[in-house]
Amino acid sequence: MMSKTSCQFDGCKTRAIRRGLCEKHYFALWRAVKAKRVTWTELEEAGACLPPNQHRVGRPGDPKVAALLKKIEQRRDAKKAAPRKPVTTKSET
Ligand SMILES: [Zn+2]
User: Lower CB count within 10 Å: N or C terminus of the chain?
Assistant: First the structure.
Protein backbone atom coordinates (compact mmCIF):
# COMPACT_ATOMS: atom_id res chain seq x y z
CA MET A 1 0.00 0.00 0.00
CA MET A 2 1.37 3.37 -0.95
CA SER A 3 1.28 5.97 1.73
CA LYS A 4 0.22 9.37 0.52
CA THR A 5 2.94 11.62 1.80
CA SER A 6 4.20 14.77 0.24
CA CYS A 7 7.81 15.69 -0.24
CA GLN A 8 9.36 16.88 2.99
CA PHE A 9 11.49 19.35 1.13
CA ASP A 10 10.70 22.85 2.30
CA GLY A 11 7.72 24.25 0.46
CA CYS A 12 7.35 21.26 -1.86
CA LYS A 13 3.91 19.67 -2.08
CA THR A 14 4.73 16.97 -4.58
CA ARG A 15 4.10 13.38 -3.57
CA ALA A 16 7.15 11.72 -2.05
CA ILE A 17 8.48 8.69 -3.86
CA ARG A 18 11.61 7.85 -1.92
CA ARG A 19 13.24 8.85 1.35
CA GLY A 20 10.38 11.23 2.00
CA LEU A 21 11.23 13.20 -1.12
CA CYS A 22 9.51 13.75 -4.44
CA GLU A 23 11.15 12.61 -7.64
CA LYS A 24 12.67 15.99 -8.36
CA HIS A 25 14.17 16.52 -4.95
CA TYR A 26 15.16 12.90 -4.52
CA PHE A 27 17.17 13.01 -7.73
CA ALA A 28 18.61 16.42 -6.89
CA LEU A 29 20.03 14.95 -3.71
CA TRP A 30 20.83 11.67 -5.41
CA ARG A 31 23.00 13.55 -7.88
CA ALA A 32 24.76 15.33 -5.03
CA VAL A 33 25.40 11.98 -3.39
CA LYS A 34 26.68 10.48 -6.65
CA ALA A 35 28.95 13.48 -7.06
CA LYS A 36 30.22 12.75 -3.56
CA ARG A 37 29.22 16.16 -2.30
CA VAL A 38 27.22 14.57 0.49
CA THR A 39 26.24 11.17 1.73
CA TRP A 40 22.74 9.93 2.44
CA THR A 41 23.72 9.62 6.07
CA GLU A 42 24.69 13.28 6.22
CA LEU A 43 21.42 14.23 4.57
CA GLU A 44 19.48 12.07 7.01
CA GLU A 45 21.30 13.66 9.92
CA ALA A 46 20.49 17.09 8.54
CA GLY A 47 16.84 16.11 8.36
CA ALA A 48 16.77 16.56 4.59
CA CYS A 49 15.62 13.06 3.80
CA LEU A 50 14.47 9.91 5.51
CA PRO A 51 16.24 6.61 5.70
CA PRO A 52 15.25 4.23 2.89
CA ASN A 53 12.04 2.22 3.31
CA GLN A 54 10.48 4.95 5.37
CA HIS A 55 7.60 6.93 3.98
CA ARG A 56 6.86 9.10 6.92
CA VAL A 57 7.14 12.82 6.31
CA GLY A 58 9.70 14.38 8.56
CA ARG A 59 9.87 17.67 10.36
CA PRO A 60 8.54 20.68 8.53
CA GLY A 61 10.73 23.57 7.59
CA ASP A 62 13.69 21.66 6.29
CA PRO A 63 16.28 23.86 4.60
CA LYS A 64 16.54 24.12 0.88
CA VAL A 65 19.03 21.89 -0.88
CA ALA A 66 21.61 24.54 -1.65
CA ALA A 67 21.73 25.86 1.88
CA LEU A 68 21.74 22.35 3.17
CA LEU A 69 24.60 21.16 1.04
CA LYS A 70 26.54 24.28 1.92
CA LYS A 71 26.06 23.64 5.61
CA ILE A 72 27.17 20.05 5.31
CA GLU A 73 30.16 21.04 3.23
CA GLN A 74 31.12 23.67 5.76
CA ARG A 75 30.90 21.15 8.55
CA ARG A 76 33.03 18.73 6.60
CA ASP A 77 35.55 21.46 5.78
CA ALA A 78 35.71 22.33 9.44
CA LYS A 79 36.55 18.72 10.18
CA LYS A 80 39.19 18.72 7.47
CA ALA A 81 40.64 21.96 8.76
CA ALA A 82 41.19 20.43 12.16
CA PRO A 83 44.86 20.67 13.00
CA ARG A 84 46.68 17.74 11.58
CA LYS A 85 50.05 16.94 12.96
CA PRO A 86 52.64 17.77 10.35
CA VAL A 87 55.03 15.03 9.55
CA THR A 88 58.23 16.37 10.94
CA THR A 89 61.24 14.34 11.68
CA LYS A 90 62.41 16.41 14.54
CA SER A 91 64.44 14.49 17.02
CA GLU A 92 64.11 15.59 20.57
CA THR A 93 67.10 13.88 21.99
ZN1 LIG B 1 9.98 17.91 -3.57
Answer: C
